[in-house]
């Protein structure tokens, strides 16, 4: 499957420093489990990096419940055109994120200690991301108010993605979602491909739900062969 060089290209050295930071400080502070160290690249870094395929160029992205910076920091590394806000309510995690951002020299990233519902009046962003934060039904309530009309929630989900989407449909309708669908990104790079639930903010009911692979965003970093 895909290697770090293929996914991160010229940004691989930065990704390697981030992986080392996760394997050391991340484990010491309880943000990453010790058993995850041996599979940081496949399960975490590459799995998150391929999300960039679904993110439009020059977008402002809010990563909700950023934790150890997955996927927010990874997106900032692989896509320097993006402006990333890492939104995290816990002090020990925001401290970790701030140290990590400084150590990696990521000038396209800001760290904000807050819950999504506390900053709803401050944000009108293009994309909200989340990984292992909450069921879609609850996550949508936090994320959609942060999005501009037509903005997108990209939620990394696992085997229950379809079930979560079905269960969340009434909530998405009440929130005025324009559409909701399953996407698979990273084909040929991760096995299985990363599954996203994409919800488009707007007025009106959910009108489309299908599973497909997105086209590569115009501003995506070109992978080296």
UniProtKB/TrEMBL annotation:
Keyword flag Transferase: yes
Record's keyword terms, sorted: Cytoplasm, Methyltransferase, rRNA processing, S-adenosyl-L-methionine, Transferase
Coiled coil regions in record: none
Keyword Cytoplasm: yes
InterPro entries: rRNA_ssu_MeTfrase_G (IPR003682), SAM-dependent_MTases_sf (IPR029063)
Main localization of the protein described in the UniProt heading: cytoplasm
Subcellular location: Cytoplasm
Positions bound to S-adenosyl-L-methionine: 65, 70, 116-117, 131
Biological processes annotated in GO: methylation
Highest rank taxon of the organism: Bacteria
Sample GO molecular function, one term: methyltransferase activity
Gene3D superfamilies assigned to the protein according to its UniProt record, in alphabetical order: Vaccinia Virus protein VP39 (3.40.50.150)
Enzyme Commission identifier(s): 2.1.1.-
Residue spans crossing the bilayer: none
Enzyme class, broadest EC rank: transferase
Family: Belongs to the methyltransferase superfamily. RNA methyltransferase RsmG family.
Function: Specifically methylates the N7 position of a guanine in 16S rRNA.
Protein name per its UniProtKB record: Ribosomal RNA small subunit methyltransferase G
Organism for this UniProt entry: Actinomadura chokoriensis
Gene behind the chain: rsmG
């Amino acid at each position: 499957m895909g290697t770090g060089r293929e996914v991160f290209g010229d940004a691989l050295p930065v990704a390697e420093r981030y992986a080392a930071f996760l394997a050391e400080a991340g484990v010491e502070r309880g943000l990453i489990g010790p058993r995850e160290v041996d599979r940081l690249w496949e399960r975490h870094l590459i799995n998150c990096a391929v999300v960039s395929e679904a993110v439009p160029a020059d977008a402002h992205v809010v990563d909700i419940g950023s934790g150890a910076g997955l996927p927010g920091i990874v997106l900032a590394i692989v896509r320097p055109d993006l402006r990333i806000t890492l939104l995290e309510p816990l002090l020990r995690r925001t401290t970790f994120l701030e140290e990590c951002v400084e150590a990696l020299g990521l000038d396209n990233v800001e760290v904000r200690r807050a819950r999504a519902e506390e900053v709803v009046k401050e944000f009108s962003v293009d994309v909200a991301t989340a990984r292992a934060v909450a069921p879609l039904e609850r996550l949508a309530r936090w994320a959609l108010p942060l999005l501009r009309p037509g903005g997108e929630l990209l939620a990394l989900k696992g085997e229950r993605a379809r079930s979560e989407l079905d269960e969340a449909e009434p909530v998405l309708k009440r929130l005025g979602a324009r559409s909701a669908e399953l996407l698979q990104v990273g084909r040929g790079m991760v096995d299985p491909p990363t599954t996203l639930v994409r919800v488009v903010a707007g007025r009106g009911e959910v009108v489309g739900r299908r599973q497909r692979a997105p086209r590569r965003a115009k501003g995506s970093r070109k992978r080296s062969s």
